[in-house]
């Protein structure tokens, strides 16, 4: 099965021989303490950083073999920070997600408008479509930027801490959306800090010190032994309806 693959990735910075595969139709959560290389790995997979050793493959071909527009149709990346076009309206920002199909001078077609409308509705961003991006709260802005990524209708979606700035209601809505998108065939790789959010994914990969130290189903990865090694001895894990639930003792 085709996918997005990292093979033997070393550097830049902390990454040490990371092998990882994101398959179509699965949600893979990436966990690890601060400084473990999670965001760096996402940037390498997105083609924004070049590793010292190893290579990234997309659909069986080296990532560098794709032109920027074709790669943008296959894969969308949502980073943690900007800069972002503060002076654009929300709808205009989301329409930028269609650039891989239009180029700089292409004319939008019905399918482009449909993709933008779907992305706005799916992320709950349609109600402030007429506002400027710079006028939004952090959580509202996060939803707009996710909508821009989704508007490309990518096969693979790379998300760096997508629940940042979102309140509990919208965190739950976003996590449910990721599960639904994966069920529709999109491969999703999301950096998450909360193990309980990661437990909702199909598979979890754990980085520590730039190395991949665990990978598998949530119930096999989220063990007290592993999490205590990452976050300290007060971490506890219980199974609730077959799903691991993580909390701090005391």
TrEMBL record:
Top-level taxon in the UniProt lineage: Bacteria
Domain ABC transporter: 4-234
Molecular function in Gene Ontology: ATP binding; ATP hydrolysis activity
Matching Pfam families: ABC_tran
Keywords for the protein's UniProt record, in alphabetical order: ATP-binding, Nucleotide-binding, Translocase, Transport
Protein name per Swiss-Prot or TrEMBL: Iron ABC transporter ATP-binding protein
């Amino acid at each position: 099965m085709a996918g997005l693959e990292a093979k033997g990735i070393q550097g830049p910075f902390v990454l040490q021989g990371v092998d990882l595969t994101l398959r179509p139709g699965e949600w893979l959560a990436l966990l690890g303490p601060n400084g473990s290389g999670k965001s760096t790995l996402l940037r390498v997979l997105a083609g924004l950083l070049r590793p010292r050793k190893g290579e990234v493959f997309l659909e069986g071909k080296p990532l560098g073999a794709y032109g920027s527009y074709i790669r943008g149709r296959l894969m969308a990346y949502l980073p943690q920070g900007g800069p972002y076009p503060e002076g654009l309206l929300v709808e205009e920002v989301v329409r930028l997600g269609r650039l891989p199909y239009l180029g700089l001078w292409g004319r939008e077609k019905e399918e482009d408008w449909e993709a933008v409308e779907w992305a706005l509705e799916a992320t709950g961003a349609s109600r402030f479509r007429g506002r400027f991006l710079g006028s939004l709260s952090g959580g509202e802005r996060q939803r707009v930027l996710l909508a821009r990524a989704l508007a490309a209708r990518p096969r693979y979606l790379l998300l760096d801490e997508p629940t940042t700035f979102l309140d509990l209601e919208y965190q739950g809505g976003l996590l449910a959306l990721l599960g639904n998108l994966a069920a529709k065939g999109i491969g999703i790789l999301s950096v998450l800090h909360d193990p309980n959010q990661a437990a909702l994914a199909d598979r979890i990969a754990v980085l520590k010190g730039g190395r991949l130290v665990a990978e598998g189903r949530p119930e096999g990865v989220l063990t007290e032994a592993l999490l205590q090694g990452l976050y300290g001895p007060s971490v506890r894990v219980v199974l609730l309806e077959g799903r691991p639930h993580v909390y701090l003792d005391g």
